[in-house]
């Protein structure tokens, strides 16, 4: 079962690292900011923690803003000598991107839908063509025009009504993931006056094209907790609240089945699922619980014909199995096995077609796509020929088709979109991302998977890529990335921006540490709660392995991670700072104890099943033993670049700000420690494809400068 991806792609791209560098003469006179120390005693379970920088958690305090701006000024001065290089890197990375580009069209409900970019513009244009790709183009949204007066702009949740006349969409101009929901008339181009605030941005039309369902967030915690029913053309104040998720450890949401027959309200915590269903032709009806929640029972539902297909861990199916049940008998006692549980195969997702069932699996860490005919006359897997690839199904909205669309890329292969005829087994590559500039040749690079041994004997897979001809003499700069939480798997993926490192001699690798699901659901279970430290020790052992094998050395090894991966970075620099020349921690979750004790902070209560509830003494003590902020001590630390966003809703800006302040106080070295706060953005960084590249260029210039690479 797929887990929410809580880390954004921008975090993944930005998660870069740094290197040991004695402070240069030009920077000797620059004094780092010093945050005031105001002791606050935090007591729990008879234990008292003294937090000298707790005061930084007030973004309305002018002194807080002043401190963040002084840190930004310090960052600018310390990196002034790299500004020209940053600009060159930005132009280099931008030059590889085809500016005038568009997605592969997909067909749904009578229209082909296309997303395209135009030269010089940061934001997409969403369009459609009726019936044929030769038809006249209809612009749904030109986001460039909509975003021109905003420093941050994110449009999401585009949702066209069944009659194709209306489109609902969400807009966030703050980067706090609180979207205003709007409705546009596609016949006149008018955006209706009704505006619905504080939503997730997504919505679902009933089949009448008049009734719109959406999810609102708690304004304080930002937990998605309420489902409303809205009638097009009416004010939001008259919307009907139809469901409230009272359990603070759950979020709720609503969607429509691929069959278009049912509206579904979902409620999920880390360990438990529950769904409610209502026929989409009867939007004013009452939702019925599919299977009541039972702690530890996870399931997803898909509708086809007269049945629901249920992806579940029922009966101890740790890696999940597929079951089905009649649509009028949905309780679990009616569920029957379709694909039985397998100890070595993680069942991640399914796609249903009229004649085929397509199953997304993971075996020994590798993506597998299995194609099965309902009449059992065919059952086979798509062939993939290496160990560092990513494959996934996409945009399969139509039932009555023999064509499966999937995406594919690897560490050395640009992303492609493939249409595969499940009957004839012929594939057509509809598009492969072009790498412009004339310098990229796939054959100049090599990738492989290697295995480190953890301290408890567990084998830790590492996906690695570099230019060909790298010598294992310990001299190579090496960037090791990981995430390792929520069961989110970071598969090997191609990156055009990463070429700017590899073409300058870097090796890049992903450590598939416990806490993700790379090697199945147990891999996740062994990296959470009271086993969370496995995530950190796995990364350390992977680092030791690449040093021992001669891929790099401690003088040239860099680590990076963002969000929960930033927690990983904070933990490893406390545990084994000597292994790394530098670390970049992007929007890092580093003040774990204090955050998990504050149930007013967004997402806290829903995280108890991931980290544990520190209101319970055992969890409090365990979390405190690894929380990066609580474990900063007097020792040498690697060069550190820490990034955050003032409006971050996932990891509040004050966590990295406090961490940096405490590191400045405690560390005994003269290595670089920089905090860069985007005062306009949140968890995902800057909006717009080119603005995001500027942030990558900043990070890359920092690393390359520490490697003494100047161009």
Short structural description:
With 711 residues, this protein is an alpha+beta fold. Helix content is 18%, strand content 33%.
How do the strands and helices of this protein lay out in sequence?
Blueprint: H1 9-14, E1 40-44, E2 47-51, H2 62-78, H3 83-95, E3 101-102, E4 106-108, E5 111-117, E6 125-130, E7 137-142, H4 143-147, E8 154-160, E9 166-172, E10 179-185, E11 196-205, E12 211-217, E13 224-231, E14 240-244, E15 251-256, E16 262-268, E17 273-279, E18 288-289, E19 299-304, E20 307-312, E21 321-326, E22 336-339, E23 345-352, E24 356-363, E25 366-373, E26 379-381, E27 389-393, E28 403-410, E29 416-421, E30 427-432, E31 445-453, E32 459-467, E33 478-481, H5 499-502, E34 507-511, H6 521-525, H7 533-548, E35 557-562, H8 564-575, E36 582-586, H9 592-597, H10 608-611, H11 617-626, E37 639-645, H12 654-666, E38 673-678, H13 689-706
Parallel strand pairs: 33-34, 33-35, 35-36, 36-37, 37-38
Antiparallel strand pairs: 1-2, 3-5, 4-5, 5-6, 6-7, 8-9, 9-10, 10-11, 11-12, 12-13, 13-14, 15-16, 16-17, 17-18, 19-20, 20-21, 21-22, 23-24, 24-25, 25-26, 27-28, 28-29, 29-30, 31-32, 32-34
Helix pairs in contact: 3-13, 7-8
Give structural notes.
By secondary structure, the chain is of the alpha+beta class. Helices cover 18% and strands 33% of the residues. Strands 31-32-34-33-35-36-37-38 form an eight-stranded mixed β-sheet, with helices on both faces. The protein has a seven-stranded antiparallel β-sheet with strand order 8-9-10-11-12-13-14, with no helix packed on it. Strands 3, 4, 5, 6 and 7 form a five-stranded antiparallel β-sheet that branches. Helix 3 crosses helix 13 (689-706) and helix 7 packs across helix 8 (564-575). The relative contact order is 0.14. Mean pLDDT is 92; it is low at 1-27.
């Amino acid at each position: 079962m797929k887990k929410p991806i809580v880390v954004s792609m921008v975090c993944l791209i930005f998660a870069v690292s740094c290197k040991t560098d004695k402070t240069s003469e030009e920077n000797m006179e620059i004094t780092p900011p010093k945050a005031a120390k105001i002791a606050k005693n935090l007591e729990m379970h008879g234990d008292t923690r003294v937090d000298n920088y707790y005061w930084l958690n007030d973004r309305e305090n002018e002194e807080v803003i002043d401190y963040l701006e002084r840190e930004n000024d310090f960052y600018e001065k310390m990196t002034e000598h790299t500004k020209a290089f940053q600009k060159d890197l930005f132009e280099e990375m931008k030059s590889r991107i085809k500016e005038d580009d568009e997605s592969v069209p997909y067909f749904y409900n009578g229209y082909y839908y296309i997303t395209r970019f135009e030269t010089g513009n940061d934001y997409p244009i969403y369009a459609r063509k009726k019936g044929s790709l030769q038809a006249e183009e209809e612009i749904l949204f030109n986001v460039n025009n909509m975003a021109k007066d905003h420093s941050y702009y994110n449009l999401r949740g585009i949702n066209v009504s069944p009659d194709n006349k209306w489109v609902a969409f969400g807009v966030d101009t703050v980067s706090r993931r609180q979207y205003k929901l709007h409705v546009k008339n596609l016949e006149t181009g008018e955006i209706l006056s009704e505006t619905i605030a504080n939503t997730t941005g997504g919505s679902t039309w009933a089949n009448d094209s008049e009734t719109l369902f959406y999810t609102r967030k708690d304004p304080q915690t930002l937990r998605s907790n309420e489902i409303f029913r809205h009638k097009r053309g009416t004010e939001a104040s008259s919307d009907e609240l139809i469901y409230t998720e009272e359990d603070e450890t759950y979020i709720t949401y609503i969607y429509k089945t691929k069959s278009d027959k049912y509206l579904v309200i979902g409620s999920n915590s880390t360990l438990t699922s529950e769904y409610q269903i209502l026929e989409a032709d009867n939007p004013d009806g009452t939702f019925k619980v599919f299977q009541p929640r039972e702690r530890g029972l996870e399931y997803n539902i898909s509708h086809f014909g007269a049945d629901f297909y249920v992806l579940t861990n029922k009966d101890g199916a740790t890696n999940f199995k597929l079951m089905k049940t009649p649509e009028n008998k949905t309780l679990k006692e009616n569920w029957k096995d379709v694909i039985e549980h397998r100890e070595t195969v993680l069942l991640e997702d399914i796609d249903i077609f009229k004649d085929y069932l397509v199953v997304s699996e993971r075996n020994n860490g590798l993506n597998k796509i299995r194609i099965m005919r309902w009449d059992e006359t065919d059952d086979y897997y798509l062939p993939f020929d290496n160990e560092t690839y990513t494959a996934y199904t996409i945009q399969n909205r139509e039932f009555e088709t023999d064509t499966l669309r999937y995406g594919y890329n690897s560490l050395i292969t640009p992303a492609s979109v493939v249409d595969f005829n499940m009957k004839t087994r012929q594939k057509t590559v509809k598009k492969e991302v072009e790498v412009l500039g004339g310098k990229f040749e796939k054959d100049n690079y090599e990738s492989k998977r290697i295995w480190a041994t953890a301290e408890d004997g567990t084998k830790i897979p590492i996906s690695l890529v570099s230019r060909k001809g790298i010598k294992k003499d310990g001299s190579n700069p090496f960037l090791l990335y990981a995430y390792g939480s929520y069961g989110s798997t970071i598969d090997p993926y191609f990156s055009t921006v990463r070429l700017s490192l590899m073409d300058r001699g870097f090796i890049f690798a992903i450590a598939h540490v416990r806490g993700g699901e790379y090697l199945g659901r147990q891999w996740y279970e062994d990296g959470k709660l009271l086993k969370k430290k496995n995530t950190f020790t796995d990364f350390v052992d992977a680092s030791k392995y690449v040093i021992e094998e001669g891929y790099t050395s401690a003088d040239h090894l860099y680590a990076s991670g963002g969000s929960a991966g930033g927690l990983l970075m904070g933990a490893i620099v406390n545990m084994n700072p000597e292994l790394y020349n530098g670390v970049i921690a992007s929007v890092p979750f580093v003040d774990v104890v204090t955050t998990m004790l504050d149930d007013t902070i967004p997402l806290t209560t829903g995280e108890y099943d991931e980290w544990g509830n520190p209101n319970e003494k055992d969890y409090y003590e365990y979390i405190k033993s690894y929380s990066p902020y609580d474990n900063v001590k007097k020792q040498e630390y690697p060069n550190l670049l820490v990034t955050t966003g003032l409006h971050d809703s996932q990891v509040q800006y004050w966590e990295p700000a406090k961490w940096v302040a405490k590191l400045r106080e405690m560390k005994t070295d003269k290595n670089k420690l920089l905090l860069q706060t985007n005062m306009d953005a949140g968890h995902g960084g800057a909006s717009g494809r080119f603005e995001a590249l500027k942030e990558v260029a900043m990070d890359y210039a920092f690393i390359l400068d520490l490697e003494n690479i100047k161009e």
